[in-house]
Each structure stands twice: as structure tokens, then as C-alpha cells.
Amino acid sequence: MRNAHYRNYDTKKQNIKKKYPQSIFKRPSPGRTIDVYTAEERKLHQEYLKELTDLIFEPDGDFQEFTWEIMSEQDKMIMERKARGRKWHYDYD
């Protein structure tokens, strides 16, 4: 069964994707040097990417919750210690 937070994130992502024309999601053939996107399509694609990154980096958002839930306990402990300003003995940076 898929994670509930991931399902919510994916639904929001698909809703964002539906707002834009499918032409901005086409991929050029490998080795093709001709620009296949118009200036308007590039602008729309940048807007789409901005909305998508805002969704991904939303504090306490569904994507953040999903990644936290699939993280190992060891990784969670390391991140919590770093967030509090305490480092492990092997962290020199």
C-alpha cells in the first residue's frame, strides 16, 4: 500500500500538471540540436517547475512528511542532532 502522504503529494502534483499544456512535457529525441520549445513553452515550463518545487519544499507538506516516514531511524537521529546543533564525533565539517 502506498503512503498516504505520497498519495496526497502525487494528487497535488497531477493537479498542477493538468494546468499546463502537454506540449511542455515532451522530450526531444536524443542528439537533436534544434530547440523544440517555443519561448512561451519555456516560460510555462519554468512556471510549472516553480510550482512543483514550492510543493516539494513546503514546510511540513506531504512530500516532506513522506520522506521523513521512509527515512531510517539512524538517519532521523543524525538529522535531529544536527538540527539541534550537536554533531557526531565523526562530523568534521
Summarize the structure.
By secondary structure, the chain is mainly alpha-helical. The protein has helices at 4-18, 39-56, 62-70, 73-83. It is elongated and about 50 Å long.
Characterization of the model:
This protein has helices spanning 4-18, 39-56, 62-70, 73-83. It is mostly helical. The chain has one domain (4-26, 38-83). The longest helix is centred in the middle third of the chain and has 18 residues, at 39-56. The N and C termini lie far apart (39 Å).
Index terms:
93 residues
In whole angstroms, the N-to-C terminal distance is 39 Å
Percent of residues in helices: 55-70%
H/E element order:
HHHH
Q: What is the residue-mean pLDDT, rounded to a whole number? A: 84
Largest sheet, strands/sense/barrel? none
Radius of gyration: 19 Å
Alpha plus pi helix count = 4
Q: Which structural class is indicated by helix and strand composition? A: mainly alpha
Number of domains: 1
Instruction: Report the strand count.
Output: 0
Form type: elongated
Give the secondary structure arrangement, pairings included:
Blueprint: H1 4-18, H2 39-56, H3 62-70, H4 73-83
Helix pairs in contact: 1-2, 1-3
